[in-house]
Amino acid sequence: QVQLVESGGGLVQAGGSLRLSCAASGSTLRSYVVGWFRQAPGKEHKFVAYINWSGDITDYTDSVKGRFTISRDNAKNTVYLQMNTLKPEDTAVYYCAVASRWTIRPEDFGSWGQGTQVTVSS
Q1: DSSP annotation of 14
Q2: Strands (E), the chain
Q3: For position 83, what pLDDT does the model report?
Q4: pLDDT tens figures, 22-39
Q5: Parallel, antiparallel, or unpaired: how do β-strands 10-13 and 116-121 relate?
Q6: What mean pLDDT comes out for the span 112-116?
Q7: Are 95 and 107 in contact (CB under 8 A)?
Q8: Residue 15 has pLDDT above 90, yes or no
Q9: CA pair distance 44, 34, nearest whole angstrom
Q10: Are the C-beta atoms of residues 96 and 70 closer than 8 Å to each other?
Q11: How far lies 4's CA from each of 23, 47, 102, in Å?
């Protein structure tokens, strides 16, 4: 069973950047699709981005395309989310999770981390 720990969140002004990390232990990430999701207060988990096991296939929700980049380092068992040109509406708790197939449905993902708070001030 893989365990995931997110880090890298914080408070940043609009237009700024953050890089989130999702570090895995207990098992390799190599065979998983890894996804990033976010949850604003009172809202459901929303898909942000995902990446396949080899890192050559990625997809993003429309609102972050061109601003966020997902990547992975299988040697470090870590997935990253580079977030540029941040907007106040990006404020949320960001989570990573794994799936055994190509999907954007949160219910198909498991091994959720504890999340990392991202707050973007205007």
Answers
A1: T
A2: 3-7, 10-13, 18-25, 33-39, 46-51, 58-60, 68-73, 78-83, 92-99, 116-121
A3: 98
A4: 999 988 888 889 999 999
A5: parallel
A6: 95
A7: no
A8: yes
A9: 19
A10: no
A11: 6, 17, 19
